[in-house]
Amino acid sequence: MGIQQIPLASSGLTQSQLITAPNWTLLQTTSANNVTALHITGLSGYKRYKVFVSNLLVVANGDYPYWFLNNDLTNHIVWQNFSDRGSTKTVTGSAGLTNVYYMTTNGWRNDSYQPCGYIEINNADSTSAKQIESAGHFYSSGGNNVHFEGFGISVIAAPISQISVAMPSGDPFYMNQIYVYGAN
Amino acid sequence: MIKPTIKIVDVSTQEEIVREMNDEEYAQYQQMVADQQQMVADQLAKQASQNATE
Q: I need a surface site. Which of A85, A113, A131, B42 has the fewest CB within 10 A?
């Protein structure tokens, strides 16, 4: 039996429904210059959000970003700083933490290298769980090219209207380029 | 006392504000730092305990 071909017109779907690739729209470009926290607010109307950052520079070695949604810092997403990539780690944070996103990396350092990464939130407009993906790249002062990536679930029961980032050390940081995208 | 600087980027209005933290934000900031310090202390204590038993 050959392959059955169903004409588009009889599939019952519109053309836009058949296209599954997100239609990413650049919402804003910005930067962070020696600030202690960055809040990207006013998010609405999209099912997906993506924040690209590059040239992340932290003030102190050992710093690493907390990403958090809707200003809920107790449920954060960690770009953790590790010097021993590949070893077994446990999730950091308070007991009962339910939406931790966790990854291993050689870490963000206080040097002139230019790490970049992104965080993406899917299902952002619903009141059910959000899917979170993140990845980044880092060139360590030891000469190692490090790629890291991870996946997580946020159970924040509200549409996402705010994405924030801060260093848990409380130190200020820099992000030379920040790109905020939305898509449906 | 000068509080830390915060940046707010509102994508709905394209407005960007850099200002000193307000009291509520500063309280959240202090909690974040305290949590981090506690986590580091817990990790150091755990490491010390493991070293003592080895």
A: B42
If you write DSSP's letter for every residue of A59-76 in order, what string do you get?
Answer: SSTT--PEEEETT-TTSE
Which of A174, A159, A147, A94 is closest to A121 using CA atoms? A159
The phi and psi torsions of B32 (rounded to 5 degrees) equal -60, -45
Give the C-alpha separation, A97 to A91, whole Å.
9
CA distance A150 to A137: 12
Beta strands in A5-101 (DSSP E): 25-35, 37-41, 48-58, 66-69, 76-78
| B36 in A contact zone (CB under 8 Å) | yes
Cβ(A30)–Cβ(A157) below 8 Å: no
**What ipTM did this prediction achieve?**
0.84
Take residue A129 and report the two structure tokens written for it: 């769980």
Specify burial of residue A169 (Cβ count, 10 A radius: 0-12, 13-18, 19+): buried
Residue A180, amino acid: V
A2 to chain B nearest CA, in Å? Answer: 51
**CA A73 – CA A165 distance, rounded (Å):** 9
Task: Please report the DSSP string for B1-54 in residue order.
Answer: -PPPEEEEEETTTTEEEEEE--HHHHHHHHHHHHHHHHHHHHHHHHHHHHHHH-
CA distance B19 to chain A (A): 9
3-state secondary structure of A46: coil
pTM of the predicted model over 0.90: no
A window 120-159, beta carbon within 8 A of B: none
Radius of gyration in angstroms for the set of CA atoms belonging to chain A, rounded to a whole number: 19
Alpha-carbon span A134 to A47, nearest angstrom: 16
